[in-house]
Task: structure prediction
Amino acid sequence: MDNTAVQFTALVQAQRITLSPKQLEQFELYFTELVSWNEKMNLTGITEREQVYMKHFYDSLSLAFFMNMGEVNTLADIGSGAGFPGIPLKICFPHLKLTIVDSLSKRISFLQHVCDTLQLKNVQLIHGRAEDVARQFIHRDAYDLVTARAVARLALLNEFCLPFTRKDGFFAAMKGNDPSEELTEAKRSFKELRAELQKVESFTLPVEESARHIVIIRKSGATPAKYPRKAGMPAKAPLI
Result:
């Protein structure tokens, strides 16, 4: 193992996640394919090896530092982009039934290639907008844990993600800066979408020491019939 892999292994081990040689090989393959495909399509602005392992892989796994993944059977990753956090979590916790929703077909093609190359089973890749997919019976109020590692503000993310979350399940929004202001702004969306704030966890990303926050939201009831609104509507008129 090179220094990056050794450091990555030690950092996740400190969080009680032990990686097998096969899992480390899967992360390495993921890195290789990400950089290779990134030359022909824009997947990430981060391609340097140590940065990918810290800012993408470790950051994705941070969800497991605060949630018991052993109790999660079904995971939905909304707007996953290049597969974060869903694919790193699936590598570490192979029991997860993972569903990834992304609106760009090129990204879904990349993710299909990654799943095939890494031989990941029980991964469903859906090309579509969250607002449309969440209206399908099979996905609505269906998942133990829903996550998004996205830049959209929480009031908007709630409408994208909470309709996928089952009653008593959780939505975890992965954020950079302190989300206090967003939480205040999102109060109406919590009420409308039958959810309540459980807690906000914060930590510092190793090496570059940037702030990270995970907003953990519990779904308290079934999604009202009028949500999510038609594709495009939540962004135009967020629930604030």
